[in-house]
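Request: When convenient, would you put together a sequence paired with its structure tokens?
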Amino acid sequence: MNVTNFDDARLTAVGLLAEVHAGLMARLQPALAAAGLSEVDFETVIRLARSPEQRLRMSDLAAQTGLSTSGVTRVVDRLEREGLVARQACAHDRRASYAVLTDAGRERLESVLPQHVQDIEDCFTGLLEAKELEAFLGSLRKIRAVVRPCATAGATSGDVEPVPGC
């Protein structure tokens, strides 16, 4: 495919998505930093908090965050030193372990969530009407299923289908 149209809507879509992501992260970062959390720290603890039993297999956490296994190990090591996450051995597979949110991790999340959610409301979801937000979330899920099929690894909610190989 030879594309010579620099005004191609596909280029605009990816460019806008990148700009919005960068802008959102810049707006959300100060509240996270005030709570002593980096973006990857927050993503890790919020994924644990939203998971069944507030825990995930390390391999599933890596798949959900898009980190390598060594990358997620480093993040969990750091969070474990801070007392926000603990490791738990898997009872039926000695090779596997879980990252588990601790009480201190829940408290840290609870301290940052009001401002974080307000920031999201102010510069993202609050700008959309309910039907727009619903359609936007559906579109994001459709795209995520293709570009990050393992992003829901370990999730057991009824609206998430397990992905083979994740």
The radius of gyration is 18 Å. The longest strand covers residues 85-89. The chain is about 60% helix and 10% strand. The first helix runs from residue 9 to 34.
